[in-house]
Amino acid sequence: CAHQQVLTGGDKFEWKQHSEQVKNLKSWNMDGKMGVRQDSKGASFNVAWKQYPTEFQLSLSGPLGQGAVSVSGDRYGVTMIDSDGTAHKARSLEQLMAENTDLILPLAQLPYWVKGIADPHYPATISLNENNLAGQLDQLGWTVSYLSYFQLTPPLPQKLKFQQGENSGKLVIKRWEFSETGR
Amino acid sequence: SENDLKQFIALLTQYDNFKAGFVQSTVSNDDSTLESVEGEVLIKRPNQFVWLSYPPVEQEIVSNGKTLWIYDRDLDQVTIQPAESKIQDSPAVILSGDEVQIKRLYDVALNNDGVYVLTPVKENSGLSSIQVSFKENVVSALLFEDSLGQKTIIELFDTKTNVVLGGDEFDFVPPEGVDVLEQAE
I want to staple A149 with a disulfide (CB 3.0 to 4.6 A). Which of A7, A92, A105, B30 is the partner? Predict the structure, then answer.
């Protein structure tokens, strides 16, 4: 689809209605790039994310396409296939991450944060920006800040950062794809 | 075979440096194009290169043979790693014709379409093969196929060899205000 336009300051939304609409958006695709940092160490990878109501597929690939890792999950559990092609299974994303990487990445919350809302299963505090969309979100010790949004219906984030102490990440979304019905 | 490897290296080492534009597309195993990006590559044998991908990837990879920089403009982030680290299956290593690296990493076989097929010596490298095609004795395309059946095709164009170099192309200087990090494993 054409290059997606970025929201300007003038567009105003109503947070309650917006966050409800985004929460009901359960099927979407997103392509972007993520940078992660743990004090002086870091990495960057391309992100291709396909989310459905009860399952997801996520692929993370290194700069030259090498080191591709894919993670898929449904209500029964999650599976990670690493760059050597070996599969690792786990009950939850948290367990999968803990057992296989020393990367601290809130993968379980990211499907919500990436849309500009909090994970509804946990308490969160949100402060709105000039468009009445999430400007900053604090949840589970992480601080998520939203730098720009795409002009979509509903508007969705283009750039966000998330931080917890020495662990931080930046996500730049290149393209969103979702059906209007969101199912 | 040994002879195919010799011929392959001979083709790649006819020139001291190599400059080209590229179109890189990733194709999933059901042949739908996932992502494609254009860019430029500059290689000075044996192990110096600049691999610049334009938006939307917006990434520059530079190696001076000792240090490798990955600059993600869109993330304002540079990660640094030793040049010989695991970026071995990258197109740059192939294009640089580094015989020691190529011989260590791949078996090379010339198929009857005149395409050199490199298969990794190491079993589980996640990569199943690299096919390197030539046109008028200069590399014209590389096709990487991984163990999941996903293909990355790199087509080269406007290829020039032995261009005049300024001498500092391969020493990357991180721009002001950018996070400079060591590459995490």
Answer: A7
- B77-82 and B179-183 as β-strands: parallel, antiparallel, unpaired? parallel
Contacts of A48 in chain B (CB under 8 A): 34-35
pLDDT in tens, A132-171: 999 999 999 999 999 999 999 999 999 999 999 999 999 9
Nearest CA in chain B to A64: B90
- Which helix (H) or strand (E) is B4 found in, with range? helix B2-12
Among B74, B89, B183, select the one facing A66 at the smallest CB separation. Answer: B89
Amino acid (1-letter code) at residue B171 = D
Residue with tokens 């695709």: A29
Which residues in chain A are contacts of B61 at CB distance < 8 A? 63-64
CB B80 within 8 A of CB B181: yes
Residue of A nearest to B148 (CA): A85
B116: left (phi over 0), alpha (psi -120 to 50) or beta: beta
The pTM of the full predicted model, rounded to 2 decimals, is: 0.86
Alpha-carbon gap: B165 to the closest alpha carbon of chain A (Å): 25
- Give the pLDDT of residue A149: 96
**By CA distance, what is B92's nearest residue in A?**
A64
Interface ipTM: 0.84
Extract the tokens encoding A107.
Answer: 């993968």
Q: 3-state SS of chain B: helix, strand, coil percent to 5?
A: 15, 50, 35
Give pLDDT tens digits for B76-119: 999 999 987 655 667 887 888 888 888 888 999 999 999 999 99
Partner B contacted by A103 (CB < 8 A): yes
- CA dihedral in degrees (A84, A39, B178, B79; nearest 10)? -30
B92: chain A residues, CB-CB within 8 Å: 64
Distance CA A134, CA A120 (A): 14
